[in-house]
């Protein structure tokens, strides 16, 4: 990533004048979640995936300072600092995007993508812009954060299907770091299970926010980044629920692709399985619920009974 420029949300106009920006191309704006890093492996995977395609302008929203944990510790810093900061920065991004739109940015090909708390930040952006009379075409939420967005302690309304014309959600750690709710226009559930774990990720207790602890949560980014190499690598099958998908004997005729090639006319929940290590994609084999998936369902039921 040698060819880049930096700009402030207070003065975004320099973007359109930069030699790095091609006004004829669609624009991607990506950001990370709580305690994320601009140079972190998940962020790098996503940015490099897009840059390698050479078919998009790529903007990284750097809110690393606002998203970091502080002296209060991980949990309190999230609630007291990072979460309110995500709303403020999201609205500031919205104002910057509107300024760019007025200066000539092609809004109809703009795509916002956020991981974890960054997904809700993009939701705040979309909601704020909508209140100004403009609607973002697409927002992708990669395992949107669960804490304080659902359950009895919920205090926030984050990313949902009203924030853009089309909202696609990829769930990889539901019930843990990620939300359990279907909040998008389409919700894609790779390797769904009630314990929220992805194949290949270590089970057991791990230090909070350690790499092992975040493995399943980060898989949403890894799957999406891998899909950029070949847009048809991650097909997902429509079903009313995971149970109805996993007991079916034939693959659904209603399929979409996880990633850039998702069908924006689709609605509902979609399911697929992946490999436990890179390359993660299974192609069409991933939408056929094999015996392994039925065993995963049985294990999930056992966890539910024990829990």
Protein model, in words:
- This protein has 8 helices and 9 strands.
- The protein has a 9-stranded mixed sheet, with helices on both faces.
- The chain has helices at 14-17, 41-53, 64-67, 74-103, 117-131, 215-227, 242-246, 291-306; strands spanning 27-31, 57-60, 110-115, 138-142, 166-170, 186-190, 235-238, 255-257, 268-272.
- Helices cover 33% and strands 14% of the residues.
- Helix 2 (41-53) packs parallel to helix 6 (215-227) and helix 4 packs across helix 5 (117-131).
Please tag this protein with its features.
single chain, 307 residues, alpha/beta, Rossmann fold, 9-stranded mixed beta sheet, 8 helices, globular, disordered C terminus
CATH fold-level topology: Rossmann fold
**Measured distance between first and last alpha carbons:** 46 Å
Low-confidence stretches: 302-307
- Could you state the CATH homologous superfamily? Alpha/Beta hydrolase fold, catalytic domain
Number of strands: 9
Task: Specify the CATH architecture.
Answer: 3-Layer(aba) Sandwich
Short overview:
With 307 residues, this protein is an alpha/beta fold. It has 8 helices and 9 strands.
How is the topology of this model organized?
Blueprint: H1 14-17, E1 27-31, H2 41-53, E2 57-60, H3 64-67, H4 74-103, E3 110-115, H5 117-131, E4 138-142, E5 166-170, E6 186-190, H6 215-227, E7 235-238, H7 242-246, E8 255-257, E9 268-272, H8 291-306
Parallel strand pairs: 1-2, 1-3, 3-4, 4-5, 5-6, 6-9
Antiparallel strand pairs: 7-8, 7-9
Helix pairs in contact: 2-6, 4-5
Domain Lipase: 12-280
GO molecular function: lipase activity; serine hydrolase activity
Organism: Pieris macdunnoughi
């Amino acid at each position: 990533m040698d060819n880049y420029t930096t700009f402030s949300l207070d003065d975004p106009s320099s973007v359109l004048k930069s030699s790095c920006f091609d006004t004829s191309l669609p624009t991607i704006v990506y950001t990370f979640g709580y305690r994320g890093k601009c140079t972190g492996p998940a962020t790098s995977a996503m940015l490099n995936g897009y840059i390698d395609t050479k078919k998009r302008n790529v903007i990284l929203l750097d809110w690393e300072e606002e998203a970091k944990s502080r002296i209060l510790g991980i949990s309190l810093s999230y609630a007291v600092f990072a979460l309110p900061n995500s709303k403020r920065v999201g609205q500031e991004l919205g104002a910057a995007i509107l300024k760019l739109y007025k200066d000539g940015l092609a809004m109809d090909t703009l795509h916002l993508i956020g991981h974890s708390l960054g997904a809700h930040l993009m939701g705040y952006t979309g909601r704020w812009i909508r209140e100004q009379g403009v609607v973002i075409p697409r927002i992708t939420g990669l395992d949107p954060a669960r804490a304080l967005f659902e359950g009895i302690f919920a205090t926030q309304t984050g990313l949902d299907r009203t924030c853009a014309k089309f909202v696609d959600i990829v769930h990889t750690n539901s019930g843990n770091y990620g939300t359990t709710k279907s909040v998008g226009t389409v919700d894609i559930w790779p390797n769904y299970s009630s314990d929220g774990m992805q194949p290949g990720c270590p089970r057991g207790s791990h230090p909070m926010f350690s790499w092992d602890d975040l493995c399943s949560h980060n898989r949403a980014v890894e799957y999406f980044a891998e899909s950029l190499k070949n847009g048809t690598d991650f097909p997902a099958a429509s079903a009313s629920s995971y149970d109805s998908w996993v007991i079916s004997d034939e693959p659904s005729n209603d399929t979409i692709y996880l990633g850039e090639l998702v069908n924006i006319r689709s609605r509902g929940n979609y399911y697929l399985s992946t490999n436990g290590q890179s390359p993660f994609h299974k192609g069409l084999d991933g939408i056929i619920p094999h015996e392994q998936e039925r065993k995963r369902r049985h294990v999930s039921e056992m966890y539910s009974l024990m829990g």
